[in-house]
Design brief:
It catalyses: D-alanyl-D-alanine + UDP-N-acetyl-alpha-D-muramoyl-L-alanyl-gamma-D-glutamyl-meso-2,6-diaminopimelate + ATP = UDP-N-acetyl-alpha-D-muramoyl-L-alanyl-gamma-D-glutamyl-meso-2,6-diaminopimeloyl-D-alanyl-D-alanine + ADP + phosphate + H(+). One of its GO terms (molecular function) is UDP-N-acetylmuramoylalanyl-D-glutamyl-2,6-diaminopimelate-D-alanyl-D-alanine ligase activity. With about 425 residues, the protein is of the alpha/beta class. The chain folds into three domains: about 70 residues, Udp-n-acetylmuramoylalanyl-d-glutamate--2,6- Diaminopimelate Ligase, Chain: A, domain 1 (3-Layer(aba) Sandwich); about 200 residues, UDP-N-acetylmuramoyl-L-alanine:D-glutamate ligase (3-Layer(aba) Sandwich), CATH 3.40.1190.10; about 130 residues, Mur ligase, C-terminal domain (Protein-Tyrosine Phosphatase, Chain A), CATH 3.90.190. About 35% of the residues lie in helices and about 20% in strands. The chain contains 16 helices and 20 strands. Strands 8-9-7-10-11-12 form a six-stranded parallel sheet, sandwiched between helices. A six-stranded mixed sheet has the order 15-16-20-17-18-19. α10 links the parallel β11 and β12. α1 packs across α3. The protein is globular, with a radius of gyration of 23 Å.
Length: about 425
């Protein structure tokens, strides 16, 4: 079993880390990770045959001998330890980011703004868990001047463990909401879990960026003498965005920044990015121009214009807070008719029925013209939305659409948890 320095030297000689032989590249260092439905040890020999420089395994029966097989006690733990060691070699600012809503969008906006001055790494996609965080750290080479590491969580202690790997010098919590409340076991535990990022910064003299519009986060600010806050009425952008239109606009002291982001709720995400950019002395005009060019993707506040409809694809995930702000964003936009197609929200535990009822109430109270609900959990909204249309699954809804097409010119919001995969409906609106 090699020590961590020897393993790191081997990693530096490799072309990167691989945990899936289907994505293996010549010269990769393969880690045989395990999960409920897979065992990477089974593919170790295949990885070598297909060009891996070496394989890290944790089951002796798959050790064929020789330097190419590295037998360790726990492959995942070794991956995490390797990432932690690699992080120690990086002498750059690392910004940790977490929160209940807006993590990925804020991360990408921050990367866009910071890249106007620095070569900035950011977590790719949603690699924000116990495997994704170490993989992200190991993807940072010595050409990068700054890094942003996204941290997701659904239980207490998770973010603390990621901080031990990523060792952030700075941190930002977008907000504290009800996402994963069932898994966390209550709102108090969400606060505890998310605050672990700030706990780490406090202990290690790091710098937090604090959203003072969030009461819980504003209270956390009291722990720090070096907190950087946003939005700030004395800064170059105000707390209140301009209204009107589908896309978000912000007013600065000298400029109006027009973005490609749908919904006023994205204001805080942009404000966070501009705050971080200013702290790191990115020229204001360059940061604003960068934010203005950012194009959302991956079903996060993404506007898709088809021949007959404007579709707000926000279907990557959903929780009670993000569902409410998305519906508010829809009705605040200028459109002839507003339509929601909403799916289930997962991981809400005993609050599931109540929170789904609230979704129906919000859609009705805000005056959404047409309301469609797909899934088993969202059926609870029948109690508060007597005139909405409810469907067991997407196929049932598609059959209904063929007989009752949505009015041309409508703006349609697609919103639901990842399990719903509501993006599957997009082809039916693009015809």
């Amino acid at each position: 079993m090699p020590n961590i320095d020897q393993l790191h030297q081997l990693f530096l000689k490799s072309t990167g880390i691989c945990t899936d032989t289907r994505k293996l590249k010549q010269g990769n260092l393969f880690f045989a990770l395990k999960g409920p439905n897979f065992n990477g040890n089974l593919f170790a020999e295949k990885a070598l045959n297909e060009g891996a420089i070496a394989v890290v395994i944790d089951e002796p029966e798959y050790d064929k001998g020789g330097e190419s097989f590295i037998l360790v006690e726990n492959a995942l733990k070794y991956l995490q330890n390797l990432a932690s060691y690699h992080r120690d070699q990086l002498k750059i600012p690392v910004i940790g980011i977490t929160g209940s809503n807006g993590k990925t969008t804020t991360k990408e906006l921050m990367q866009t703004a910071l890249s106007a001055k620095f070569k900035t790494f950011a977590t790719r996609g949603n690699l924000n868990n116990h495997i994704g965080v170490p993989l992200s750290i190991l993807a940072i080479d010595d050409t990068f001047e700054m890094a942003i590491i996204e941290m997701g969580a659904n239980h207490v202690g998770e973010i603390a463990s990621y901080c031990k790997i990523a060792k952030p010098t700075h941190g930002l919590i977008t907000n504290i909401g009800k996402a994963h409340i069932g898994e966390f076991g209550g709102f108090e535990n969400i606060v505890l879990g998310k605050s672990e990022l700030f706990d780490y910064l406090k202990k290690n003299n790091g710098i937090p960026f604090v959203n003072t519009n969030d009461a819980v986060l504003k209270n956390m600010q009291k722990r720090f003498e070096n907190a950087v806050t946003y939005p700030n009425e004395h800064d170059y952008y105000p707390a209140n965005p301009l209204t009107g239109g589908v896309f978000l606009e912000l007013e600065t002291a000298t400029n109006v920044v027009s973005t490609h982001l749908v919904g006023q709720y994205n204001f805080m995400n942009v404000a966070a990015a501009l705050c971080v950019a200013k702290f790191f002395e990115v020229p204001e005009e360059a940061a604003e121009e960068a934010v203005a060019t950012y194009q959302p993707k991956d079903m996060r506040s993404q506007l898709i214009k088809t021949k007959h409809y404007n579709i707000i694809s926000d279907a990557y995930n959903a929780n009670p807070d993000s569902m409410e702000v998305a519906i508010k964003g829809l009705v605040s936009a200028e459109n002839s008719e507003s339509v929601v197609i909403l799916g289930d929200m997962m991981e809400l535990g005993e609050l599931s029925e109540l929170e789904h009822e609230k979704v129906g109430e919000i859609a009705v109270d805000l005056g959404v013209s047409k309301r469609f609900y797909i899934g088993k959990l969202i059926k609870a909204a029948k109690k508060t939305d007597k005139f909405g249309k409810f469907f067991e699954n997407k196929d049932e809804f598609i059959a209904y659409l063929k007989e009752h097409p949505i009015k041309h010119g409508s703006t349609i919001l697609l919103k639901g948890s990842r399990k719903n995969a509501l993006e599957d409906l997009l082809p039916y609106f693009e015809e």
